[in-house]
Amino acid sequence: MIELQDVTFVYDGRARALTNINLKIEKGEFVFLVGPTGTGKSTLLRLIYRDNVAGTGLVIVAGRDVTKLKRREVPYLRRRVGVIFQDFKLLPKKTVWENVGFALDVIGVGGKEKYRRVPRVLGLVGLSEKGEAFPGELSAGECQRVAMARALVNDPPILLADEPTGNLDPDTSWEIIKLLEKINLRGTTVLVATHDREIVDRMKKRVVGMAAGMIVRDQREALYTEGA
Length: 228
Hints:
Layout (H helix, E strand, L loop, with lengths): L1 E10 L3 E11 L4 E5 L6 H8 L7 E6 L2 E2 L8 H5 L2 E5 L10 H10 L5 H14 L15 H13 L5 E5 L7 H16 L3 E6 L2 H7 L2 E6 L2 E6 L9
Parallel strand pairs: 3-8, 3-9, 6-7, 7-8
Antiparallel strand pairs: 1-2, 1-4, 4-5, 9-10
C-alpha cells in the first residue's frame, strides 16, 4: 500500500531532512510514526501525499511511484490519500458542511453524490448536528473531527494524520485516536505521526521510530520508547 525504498530528501539543496528511508506499510495497517520534533516525521508524510518530492529513491503509494507523477496527476493521488493536520486548516467563513463539501468541489463531485457523502461522513465522526456551525463556534476537538471528515469524504484507502492530537487535551486526544482506530477497522490504512507517548503506549500498535531523519526502529505492538 505504501513503500519507501532508499529515500533521501534534502531541503533547498542544503539541509538533509531524510536519509536512506526504507519503510513498507501493508493495506489495512495502523502505524505510529514517532520521534521528537524535527526528526523528519512530517517530511516523510509530505513525500507520501506528494507535497514534497524525494531527491532519490522510490515512494510507492497504491501501486504507483509518486515521485514520477506529473503535476496534473497529483490531485488524483490525493483522492486516494486523506490528510489530517495538527492545525486543522479549516476555512473559517465556511460552515462545517461547506468545509467538508469543499473537498468534493475541488475534484468536481457535486449534486446528489455530494449530498450523499457529506452527511454520511459527518455522522461517522459524530458531527451530524454541527453541519451549520462555523469553525469559530466549535471546540478544538470538534474542529479536528471536521478535518477528519474532510479527509475521509473521498473514501480514501489511505489516511495520514500529522500530529492530530497536538492541540488537544488528553481526553479529547484519546477520543480522536479511538476514532482513527474505528476508521482503520473499516479497512483504511492509517499512518499517524505523533510525539504523544501516552497514546502510543496505550494503543500498542506498530511503531516506527525516527531520529535525525532516519528510521531507527520498527516494532509491532510496541511502546513509544521501547527499544530506542
